[in-house]
From TrEMBL:
Keyword entries, A-Z: Membrane, Transmembrane, Transmembrane helix
Protein origin, superkingdom: Eukaryota
Listed name of the protein: Uncharacterized protein
Parts of the chain that traverse the membrane: 21-47, 53-79, 86-112, 173-198
Amino acid sequence: MGLALEKCCCLIPLRLGAFIIAVWFFTVYLIDAVTGFLGINAIIIYSSQTAKAWYYINLLFTILVCLCGLFGIIGSLFAQRGSAKLFSLAVWICCVLSFIKYVISLVLMIVYRQNMINTCVRSGLVGIGNSQLGLAPTTVSTGSYYTPVRYPDTMNSFATSPQDCEDSIKLMIILWGAIIFVIQLLQLYFASVVNAYASRLKSGARHHRLHDQQIKDFEESRFHMSTVY
């Protein structure tokens, strides 16, 4: 077995590594779900702007990943083979689903980028302090002399200029594409570590059973020898 499968990140024991990875899945996707519910997660909100069903599918997926992370925490904390095996399978499934989720979100934002810009011009960029839910495609009239109109405590209180919105949306899409690539590579490695830990638990269980059987066979053979003499 290679070094990458003997230790997590070449330093951390597999059991501790599996626990940290389980906490990662539980915490990160819990934050993803909560911010989506609160309307401050720009990726979830903008990607579902023209595909409302995607909003609920996205949130459902994040909740499922949180539960998988919880199974992993239990399995690694108490060294339960069943939970560790379930978590190992769930991690691989989550890697595939998260790739699909992130790619679909990115494609939707690229295809409907103008809708995002229009919404930003009207209501500002989605984020902490500017929560928005149920966004629909927006039409705004802009020109060279356009100035954002802001009314406190209304939908327009964070209105932004078209150029600022276009720059912000472009930067967000580029950063999100880079983050997707890094996260997928990281989670594939995590899945390999969890799989190695689950395999070690299973192998250890077989060794224990074999050891117990060897002791039993030895005791029985010693008993039979004593009766002969």
